[in-house]
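Holo model, zinc ion. Inputs:
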Amino acid sequence: MKMVFLGPPGAGKGTLAALASARMGLPHLSTGDLFRAAVKDGSELGERVKNILDEGRLVPDELTIALVKERLSRSDARKGWILDGFPRTTGQAEALDAIAGPDWVINFHVEDSVILKRLTGRRICSGCGKIYHVVTMPPAAEGKCDACGADLYTRPDDREESIRTRLSAYRNQTAPLIQWYGDKGKLVTIDGTGSPEAVYERFAEAVKA
Ligand SMILES: [Zn+2]
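Output:
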């Protein structure tokens, strides 16, 4: 089964992709991982990605598409795959269709108010990088890491103002994509609230049908 996972930051799409990958035996392909792997293997494409990332620029579509195409051609992707973070635009979706169109596009829907609650509660350890949440995964002592005792902090990206900006950028960018896949009859919208296990059950039920 070939699938694209869509969802705003904080919708839990990465967690669900990891779960689905393990249980369905399909590779979980995120563009971030593809970029890192390309840089590491030192290929010609990898060199280009490295230069772009070093300069802090966005990797252009044609390069991302070339990496996705190469990755989808490997033997472990023959049975299917889960793409996470790609495509993000209808242009990229058209390029993906030219390589191999997805069977399903899973859109994880979570209300903005719920995402704000999830993300503004996130705290990160300044010592070891361990992630906490003031509600769902609090440390034993407030503001201190259980593992190393260092202070916890809020990433600037996790402040409410910045989350609102990211969410509206995401909605603006992907609304046409959601429409595009919807018109093709490939879109499945899943309620992304609740535990990862609960969301997984809804997802598994939807793609079984
Ligand atoms: Zn720590």
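The CA atoms of residues 122 and 133 lie 4 Å apart. The helical segments are 13-24, 31-41, 44-54, 61-72, 90-100, 112-120, 160-183, 196-208.
Archived with the compound record.
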